[in-house]
Amino acid sequence: MLFLFDLDGTITTRETLPMIAEHFSKGMEIESVTNRTITGEIPFERSFPQRVDILKDIPVSQVAEMLRGIGLHEAVRQFIAGNAAACRVVTGNLDCWCAPLVERIGCRGYFSQAIVEDDRLNGIGRLLDKAEIVDGFRAAGEKTVFIGDGDNDYQAMSRSDVSIASGLTHTPAQSICGIADYVVADEAELITVLTDLLASGL
């Protein structure tokens, strides 16, 4: 069994792109688009490149260093660290920004791929399809549990054996609440569900 975690708002206590934007004085341009993406008003595939374009002039190393210190839901981090072989982070966010953060979390990660030259972001090489990751694991015979909070998690959650809509950072998107096997409101509830699933082996 594999536990596949969205990153932003699911493991982290804040959405990373608004945090980057706020830290580097670009917050007003990012926050509204991010909120509309979470609810599904704007598709992730359209909004993410727009938001990346706003942030592309910031040195990649500075963003990665800042994100290493972002707040995490500690009980979630401990569950992942204690079950690292069975956990993966699956995020549409960029590898150049988030790989050091996922290393801190303590498991393997899957990311969108950035084009970086001289510490500057020159674009997105490949946008991660979360559902493809789920499909790949299931084709290999793995049972999957997907934990997410945004509309862009819908396809991955709908294809997983078990799906959990997480409300740890903000209210999960209505679209995923309609298909989730579990909707959790706090960290303790999420850890109880994860522990029970791990014990059951599906």
Major β-sheet annotation:
7 strands, mixed
> Helical proportion?
40-55%
Strand content: 15-25%
The number of helical segments is: 10
Element-level helix/strand string: EHHHHHEHEEHEHEHEH
**Largest sheet: spatial strand order:** 4-3-2-1-5-6-7
Alpha-carbon distance between the two ends: 8 Å
Secondary structure: elements and pairs:
Elements: E1 2-5, H1 16-23, H2 27-38, H3 44-55, H4 60-68, H5 74-82, E2 87-94, H6 95-105, E3 108-117, E4 120-126, H7 130-139, E5 144-148, H8 154-159, E6 162-166, H9 174-177, E7 182-184, H10 187-200
Parallel strand pairs: 1-2, 1-5, 2-3, 5-6, 6-7
Antiparallel strand pairs: 3-4
Describe it:
It is a single chain. By secondary structure, this protein is an alpha/beta fold. Helices cover 47% and strands 21% of the residues. The chain is built from ten helices and seven strands. A seven-stranded mixed beta sheet has the order 4-3-2-1-5-6-7, sandwiched between helices. Helix 8 (154-159) links the parallel strand 5 and strand 6 (162-166). Helix 2 (27-38) runs antiparallel to helix 3 (44-55). The model has no long low-confidence stretch (mean pLDDT 93).
Task: From the structure above, extract its key features.
202 residues; alpha/beta
Short description:
By secondary structure, the protein is an alpha/beta fold.
